[in-house]
Amino acid sequence: MSETPARGADLTQARNLVTSIPGPRSQELMARKRAAVSNAIGTTMPVFAEAAFGGVIRDVDGNTLIDLGSGIAVTGVGNANPRVVAAVSAQLEAFTHTCFMITPYDGYVEVAEKLNQLTPGDFDKRSALFNSGSEAVENAVKIARSYTGKTAVVAFDHAYHGRTNLTLALTAKNQPYKSGFGPFASDIYRAPLSYPFRDGNRTGAEAAKIAISQIEKQVGAENLAAIIIEPIQGEGGFIVPAEGFLPALAAWATENGVVFIADEVQTGFARTGAMFASELFGIEPDLIVTAKGIAGGLPLSAVTGRAEIMDAPQTGGLGGTYGGNPLACAAALASIDAFEQDGLIEAAQRIEQQITSAFLAAQTTDARIGDVRGRGAMIAIEFVNPETGEPDAALTGAIAKAAHNQGVIVLTCGTYGNVIRFLPPLTISEELLAEGLSIVLDALANA
Ligand SMILES: *Cc1c(COP(=O)(O)O)cnc(C)c1O
């Protein structure tokens, strides 16, 4: 590694490979990882990062890679965003921790005020801050149970809500998330989703009717505390439900005294070309869970929602040692400034155009591209066997691997492992994104 500390801001926003991937230093560090880190923690890329800025990551061998994953939709404002660096550095000098439950500080309150103001719904709101998406999802369920006095929770097919015990019960996919880790939290039920590419383009109203009928038959509204759903599913494959599906579910929940929770951990904060994906579907969730993009890379998450629901649990019933850490709050406030003042919602919309037009053009001559979907800077390509329409996970893995070898970080997802997902930083330049996309398209052509 270089002798002076690496500075992200010094990086040129261009791909540059000086060794094969992985280079010798990364290989050395991978060997140390294998000897020191639990084998259960996997890595997408075999390279170790040394510095990152905007849309590039430089590895320890001096290769500069194009980042089309944002550390799983986290660095929406760009890695080491100058606003975030300045705000966190200033907070670091002031104080690092007091515990908000002991000696509160204004950054936490200001983040709560911003969340209450920015999330959809023109009603009185409150927020509570936590550390991870999973922790916030768990707390949303606690809050809904406390408010309703009921216990059952419904999640959906292909859902991903985290890796803690309760959130694993909500998460749908067995491998690698759940296998061997049970028993899981009880009173969790699964309902069918609207998945236009695989349900014959059923309308949203029809899909909602099927889901609601199953919920009524198998759970009963009188037992149901909450419905939790990702407005656009993340790990499940960027599945965009048919128009009308989410509003019908939300209306049924309201009519039946069920708390409607939107898990916007992946879709939140300008990612989908709106501040929150719920806006795209015209819904106003009772509770919204946020994390990932909220704080430019610092660990922070939140539950925001109707004041009467958020205030239902007893004082002291929610919290945690680190929840709403002052550095993370400073980062969140700086990130929110960036989303609002640096045109990042519009940037996400431009990114949608650029990615979808590239792959829709390719789809006209390549039937392996089954579906191009998503919103904003959250776009997925689902690969299939052209003859059978069956998911093609092997092709998807080969494309990702070839792109990685060429210095482009892309992620896969989907219940069937046959989806490449693009989650670039919203600050990525058009040229850098174009280069990244052309490498992925070449990888597809050669696969
Ligand atoms: C990542 C994610 C989570 C879990 O967040 P962690 O911070 O990893 O615990 C929950 N819900 C959704 C939709 C996610 O994408």
UniProtKB/TrEMBL annotation:
GO biological process, one term: gamma-aminobutyric acid metabolic process
Keyword Transferase: yes
UniProt pathway: Amino-acid degradation; 4-aminobutanoate degradation
Family to which the UniProt record says this protein belongs: Belongs to the class-III pyridoxal-phosphate-dependent aminotransferase family.
Cofactors demanded by this protein: pyridoxal 5'-phosphate
EC class (word): transferase
SUPFAM superfamilies: PLP-dependent transferases
NCBIfam families linked to this entry: GABAtrnsam, PRK06058.1
Gene Ontology MF term list: (S)-3-amino-2-methylpropionate transaminase activity; 4-aminobutyrate:2-oxoglutarate transaminase activity; identical protein binding; pyridoxal phosphate binding
InterPro entries for this protein: 4NH2But_aminotransferase_bac (IPR004632), Aminotrans_3 (IPR005814), Aminotrans_3_PPA_site (IPR049704), Class-III_PLP-dep_AT (IPR050103), PyrdxlP-dep_Trfase (IPR015424), PyrdxlP-dep_Trfase_major (IPR015421), PyrdxlP-dep_Trfase_small (IPR015422)
Residues annotated as transmembrane: none
Name listed for the protein in its UniProt record: (S)-3-amino-2-methylpropionate transaminase
UniProtKB keywords: Aminotransferase, Pyridoxal phosphate, Transferase
E.C. numbers: 2.6.1.19, 2.6.1.22
Pfam family, one: Aminotran_3
Known catalytic reactions: 4-aminobutanoate + 2-oxoglutarate = succinate semialdehyde + L-glutamate; (S)-3-amino-2-methylpropanoate + 2-oxoglutarate = 2-methyl-3-oxopropanoate + L-glutamate
PROSITE patterns: AA_TRANSFER_CLASS_3
